[in-house]
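Section 4.2 – Deliverable D4.2 (structural model, holo form)

The reporting period included a commitment to supply a predicted holo structure for the target in complex with FE2/S2 (inorganic) cluster. Inputs used:
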Amino acid sequence: MADLRVNFCGVELKNPVTTASGTFGFGHEYGEFFDLSRLGGIGVKGLTPTERLGNPAPRIAETPAGILNCVGLQNPGIDRFIAEQIPFLRQYDTAIIANVSGNTVEEYEGMVEKISDADVDLIEMNISCPNVKCGGMAFGTQPAMVEEVVSAAKRKAKKPLIVKLSPNVTDITEIARAAVSAGADALSLINTLLGMRIDIETRKPILSNVMGGLSGPAVFPVAVRMVYQVRKAVSVPILGMGGIRTGRDIVEMLLAGADAVAMGTVMFADPTAPVKALAELEAWMDAHGVKSVRELSGAVEV
Amino acid sequence: MSIQEICRAASNTRLGEGLYQLVLDAPQIAAAAQCGQFVHIACGEGNLLRRPISICEAGEGRLRIVFQVKGSGTEWLADRKEGDTLDVLGPLGHGFDTAALGARPVLIGGGIGVPPMLQAAKCAKAAGAAPRAVLGFRNRGAVILEEDFRAVCETFVTTDDGSYARHGFVTDVLQELVADATGVAACGPKPMLKAIAAIAKQAGLPCQVSMEERMGCGIGACLVCACALKAENGETRYGHVCKDGPVFNAEEVEW
Ligand SMILES: Cc1cc2nc3c(=O)[nH]c(=O)nc-3n(C[C@H](O)[C@H](O)[C@H](O)COP(=O)(O)OP(=O)(O)OC[C@H]3O[C@@H](n4cnc5c(N)ncnc54)[C@H](O)[C@@H]3O)c2cc1C
Ligand SMILES: Cc1cc2nc3c(=O)[nH]c(=O)nc-3n(C[C@H](O)[C@H](O)[C@H](O)COP(=O)(O)O)c2cc1C
Ligand code: FES
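Output (structure tokens):
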């Protein structure tokens, strides 16, 4: 039996499979399809200081092997998450990864401070949302801004702080280094790639917000490449994500340099994808005589 | 309750130009289905997202769906043959509350919005109500399910161009039926639903509408299928078609 346990910045995950923020709500819905305790961790919907309504529909467009979304961080606000959702999630034996965003440095600080006092295991700071006007990606694409917002947030963090990076940059290693030098305990990547689709009959963009974030299998090679580059640039743990579908994809993401992974869009095709991928990962490791999942991290031979 | 069921196609019948009826052996989903709910169907390797399709009829271990070919997903569905297997999630969403529509509901379908109204008519009738159905189509070639409705209840058919049955719109018929109606339920294009909601409101009748939106997960997790609703404070809030809907109270919808 392969050992799937991962220690992710001091937090023991029973396996490296988590869910990507925004694709899994707060877990209730997918909990009807599989036991949430089988996951290494649950990344919850991105949270903001107060409730956000999000963008009008259409918020999704299908693309070859992917989707574009412009949900716009619809969420009930951090206080309701803490009061209503943490007790639900704590019924399961899995790590809670709270995903937080803000419009200003002060908001990020406040979010990280508040969520640190709540019963969550890891804090994922989203500085890479392409679907909101302020904040989000604006923070995550300039090294100086990354340093400022991450160091401010880190001062308030009493739980391990994961910084989620945007792929919409020229050099992701520059951003990764800025985040780590500002105190990030771990990095997660990739968030969605900015994209656009047009309805050729109406000549109008399909998405209400004109542009949206690309995710799903289409982005997998980009994610693998970026995780590989970031692994070489910094030494903090990496939560790898972007287009993962199967157990073999997980192996590939680990080899590129991830310590744990998150799965998102694939669940829209198959709600049980994470547990299927986990079984495939285990079978692959057994068949290849890999005793611990930790042996795979960064083991690509170039 | 959401179930993932691998279903066998019992039959696939062409009903007209680009119109198909697929019957699926789906004992678990069929047993749990309520009228107005939908299924979310995986449509082959080339289509990452599932396609939402209304349940037209559920019973005896089977689901019947009726759909129009629009793009690659519904094209794939149209190609299914008896014995093929399909990966289906369902029954999803919040359907019609026929009890709230009273003893004499008017059930309206426009075009490819007609199918879910059949189960609604059966459900209302089974509960002792005397529903009437109003079905609107573009033209003669688009007419579907007329006989099925006539077998259940009094049925009125209109075509936009007058090539079949009554020339006109479902709203023309509704105007004539509101006097002794107790409630209205409808599925179809948004402008039609909006017009129906206005008539029902004026007549003081409860009105339920089945809305459409592009979907991702289909179960309420990804929040992409937003439907603008009126919040209590008078502002807009977003409900989700796959979970809060597809059926909403018309009064709630921000038209
Ligand atoms: C709750 C609900 C019930 C439905 N019931 C029926 C039904 O009983 N019969 C029927 O023929 N059609 C029904 N539809 C519409 C049907 O889902 C679309 O026609 C279908 O998804 C088109 O897929 P496609 O690949 O053929 O078209 P494409 O245009 O290639 O689809 C591209 C993408 O857009 C989405 N999309 C396109 N049109 C629609 C639409 N009108 N609504 C939602 N998503 C759309 C697709 O799902 C896909 O993700 C229903 C839609 C909803 C939301
Ligand atoms: C519908 C949707 C909503 C998302 N919402 C968030 C969010 O709130 N916060 C966040 O950090 N990332 C969000 N993401 C990005 C995902 O967490 C993930 O980084 C990205 O989708 C790539 O993984 P995937 O291809 O497996 O989906 C969202 C993605 C999707 C598809
Ligand atoms: S489609 Fe995911 S929430 Fe409705």
